[in-house]
Design a protein that fits this description.
Helix content: 10-25%
CATH architecture: Sandwich
Strand content: 25-35%
Shape: globular
Largest sheet: 8 strands, antiparallel
Bound molecules: calcium ion
Number of strands: 14
Distance between the termini: 36 Å
CATH class: Mainly Beta
Length: 264
């Protein structure tokens, strides 16, 4: 009986750990008994798409999704974690990016994915480690502009909107380092209908150069609270992963998640 009580006491004192918590890819790991880390899975609405290139359960080395992707190997398919089924595919081996612990590495030449289902989004936020700047770098192919993020060697969107870098408005491209790259379209009616991902399929010279670790798209503008949580989540998760310590330090001093990752 004494041991049974001890066992129950241990069970009650153990932290409630969800599947994604405490994993090696977190830049911060929950301490026992501390509050649960917040993730985009805790959002209740507005998710359009969520690619998490740290989650090997969502990446495949074949387009059928039967062979799990591994670090150092290729990725032929990413499954959308938003629940909307916007999975993306690349059949041609030479066009498949490489899986790394720092996200998917795109060669800037012809690596890209295609979505079989288009989606509409007004807000985009990503963790990337851009390579050398090139003209008209593309992350998404859309209908009303040639790509949503990426301009002529800078971060200007093609047809209006606000760009954020590490939580502050900016249009400066941070070549060869990590940064959070976000875009909000000006109005709900100015949403983009996205057709391709991580490549501008209209111009073959405009492939994304560098790493893409995570991409989140929302159907509507987030509240400031949600945008801050998304920024805090990405900054703390990917800080130091690619050898750069610029994500958390890059957040503005007044950012609510400057000193700790968001919790539930
Ligand atoms: Ca290639």
């Amino acid at each position: 009986m004494r041991y049974l009580l001890l066992l129950i006491a241990l069970m009650l004192s153990a932290p409630c750990v969800r599947a994604q918590d405490g994993a090696a890819w977190w830049g911060v790991v929950e301490a026992a008994g501390s509050a649960e880390l917040w993730t985009p899975a805790d959002m209740t609405n507005n998710q359009a798409l969520w690619f998490d290139m740290a989650d090997l359960d969502t990446m495949w080395s074949d387009t059928n999704g039967t062979v799990a992707a591994t670090n150092g190997g290729v990725c032929a398919r990413i499954d959308d974690k938003s629940g909307n089924g916007i999975n993306v595919y690349q059949n041609t081996g030479a066009k498949q990016p490489t899986v790394t612990t720092g996200g998917l590495l795109f060669d800037g030449t012809d690596d890209w994915f295609e979505s079989t289902a288009s989606f509409t989004a007004q807000f985009f936020l990503s963790y990337v480690k851009g390579g050398t700047a090139k003209n008209w770098m593309g992350m998404f192919t859309a209908t009303t502009s040639e790509c949503i993020l990426g301009g002529s060697g800078d971060l200007l969107p093609f047809s209006g909107g606000t760009v954020w870098v590490n939580g502050v408005t900016s249009t400066t491209y941070n070549a060869n380092t990590s940064f959070l790259w976000g875009l909000q379209r000006p109005t709900a009616s100015n949403k983009e209908r996205v057709l391709g991902v991580e490549y501008n399929s209209r111009k073959s010279s405009r492939a994304w150069p560098g790493y893409i670790g995570e991409v989140l798209c929302l159907t509507a503008s987030p509240t400031l609270e949600i945008r801050n949580k998304l920024e805090g989540y990405l900054a703390w998760k990917w800080d130091k992963i690619n050898g750069d310590t610029v994500l958390v330090t890059g957040l503005p001093s007044a950012h609510p998640y400057k000193s700790a990752a968001p919790t539930q």
